[in-house]
Amino acid sequence: GQSLEQPSEVTAVEGAIVQINCTYQTSGFYGLSWYQQHDGGAPTFLSYNALDGLEETGRFSSFLSRSDSYGYLLLQELQMKDSASYFCAVDRAAGNKLTFGGGTRVLVKP
Amino acid sequence: EAGVAQSPRYKIIEKRQSVAFWCNPISGHATLYWYQQILGQGPKLLIQFQNNGVVDDSQLPKDRFSAERLKGVDSTLKIQPAKLEDSAVYLCASSFNQGQVAGYTFGSGTRLTVV
Fold first, then answer.
1. Are strands A84-91 and A31-37 parallel, antiparallel or unpaired?
2. How far apart are CA A100 and CA B18, in angstroms?
3. How many other CB atoms sit within 10 Å of the CB of residue A59?
4. What count of other Cβ atoms lies within 10 Å of the Cβ of residue A66?
5. CA distances from B90 to A28, A30, B34, B45 (A)
6. Residues of chain B found within 8 Å of residue A5, distances taken between Cβ atoms
7. Is the Cβ pair B43, A43 closer than 8 Å?
8. CB-based burial label for A44 (10 Å; 0-12, 13-18, 19+)
9. Quick one: pLDDT at residue A97?
10. Closest B-chain CA to A95
């Protein structure tokens, strides 16, 4: 079967750094994506890792280790607007199929 | 660039009734997906279209769910008859092609409540 594990909730203060881990077990792996979803909103694409290593996009970075079936999303210089749910998703067939984790709810406090 | 359009935004129906959702993808996007997101969970793929053909519907409960994309542009998802457990947000997403790795673009979804 397919499984993705990520923490259910993380709380941090403005300006802090948060790391959201994701471990996966899937049949087929092409890459790991991260999506952000505010309450009542659409999931929005943040990043994609196909190869091992760190990808940096502004305040957000994403890391992948294929040998460990593990990745993480790093949120730096947290802002109130970063309060949202964050989902890791495995791309199982080169852009065809995304299997999502259960999501991590990030709460940023003043 | 206009986003993925979905309607209605909200729908409340009684169990055993039927309901339909509509999606218009980003212009030029050949691949269209329908996802079901139950409250507190991640989205789950129901069906994937490439133009007007079905690529994957392995997770679509075909006894009650159906979807079509007749002209390869907009799409409808239907549930008939609805069950209580169908209460969820139904998200439509599109991408330029199957091999796109820069991420899907999701619509804001239709929130279905079955009572």
1. antiparallel
2. 28
3. 13
4. 14
5. 25, 25, 7, 10
6. none
7. yes
8. middle
9. 75
10. B99
Q: A10 Cβ partners below 8 Å, 6+ apart?
A: A18, A20, A104, A105, A106, A107
pLDDT 10s digits, B37-70: 999 999 999 999 998 899 989 999 999 999 999 8
Nearest to A102 by CA among A26, A11, A3, A18: A3
Q: Judging by DSSP bridges, how do beta strands B110-114 and B10-13 pair with one another?
A: parallel
Region of B28 on the Ramachandran plot (φ > 0 left; ψ -120 to 50 alpha; else beta): left
- Measured CA to CA, the distance from residue B30 to residue B104 in angstroms comes to 12
To 5 degrees, how large is the angle CA A54–CA B33–CA B61? Answer: 120
- Selecting from A40, A50, A100 the residue whose C-beta is nearest the C-beta of B42 gives A100
User: Which of B84, B109, B90, B89 minimizes the C-alpha distance to B14?
Assistant: B84
Sequence-distant (6+) residues with CB within 8 A of B61 are none
How confident is the model at residue A88, as a pLDDT? 96
Distance from CA of A67 to the nearest CA of B (A): 21
Distance CA A85, CA B63 (A): 32
Instruction: Give me the sheet containing B5-7, strands edge to edge.
Output: B5-7, B19-24, B75-79, B65-68
User: What are the structure tokens assigned to A50, written together?
Assistant: 């196909």
Q: What is the DSSP string of A20-44?
A: EEEEEE-SS-SEEEEEEE-TTS--E
Give the confidence band of A63 by pLDDT, cuts at 50, 70, 90.
very high
